[in-house]
Design a protein that fits this description.
about 190 residues, alpha+beta, Protein Transport Mog1p, Chain A, eight-stranded antiparallel sheet, three-stranded antiparallel sheet, globular
């Protein structure tokens, strides 16, 4: 069962990465009329977030994610994927499988040490882990140095993988926006 769980996630992550990184991004307005600093629900109300200024909803990967956002300049994006926590693996296995897929798909330069944290919820705080990955992504003949931000959290019923990315050199303000988004996540359970 654990092997099936791992293979399912491996297939999803490879496909997700190829579509999200190697396809052009399309930005639209964020869900509804969200203003800067306004909290709104995603994932049918299971999560809520605050979208940073200059980010908008993207339809890229819409069938595979509960939410996806990109910057107006298309240099940065983030996607939230939801999985059933009962499939047999945990947060560390999901993070390890995602990093392994990056290593198989991209030229990984560095994997940051995983850090632990929490995501606030209505009744308790949920465990989370986070790591960064520095990699070179190839699109046709072009290559792009990227930084990926991998954030995994477990709400007991669901595992969530947030994959954010930005081109290098990383702008301090852009990285601050990614961290701002991650800190804004609330599990409404």
């Amino acid at each position: 069962m654990k092997t099936a769980f791992h293979l399912c996630r491996v297939r999803w992550v490879v496909g997700f990465l190829l579509v999200s990184i190697l396809s052009p991004r399309s930005c639209a307005a964020a869900e509804g009329a969200n203003r800067r600093g306004e909290r709104f629900d995603i994932a049918e109300g299971r999560l809520s977030v605050i979208l940073p200024d200059g980010w908008g909803k993207t339809d890229l990967n819409a069938a595979d994610v509960v939410a996806g956002y990109a910057t107006q300049d298309n240099r940065s994006s983030l996607f939230i994927r939801e999985m059933d926590a009962g499939l047999g693996g945990g947060m560390q296995e999901l993070l390890d499988a995602t990093v392994a897929n990056y290593e198989a798909t991209f030229e990984v330069k560095e994997v940051g040490k995983a850090k632990t944290g929490e995501v606030p919820g209505k009744t308790r705080k949920w465990p989370a882990i986070f790591a960064t990955v520095e990699a070179v992504v190839k699109k046709g003949e072009e290559t792009f140095a990227m930084r990926f931000y991998l954030f995994v959290f477990d709400t007991g019923k669901n595992l969530y993988l947030v994959q954010a990315s930005t081109t290098q050199p990383v702008r301090e303000s852009r990285e601050a926006q990614i961290y701002e988004f991650l800190r804004s996540l609330v599990a409404n359970s």
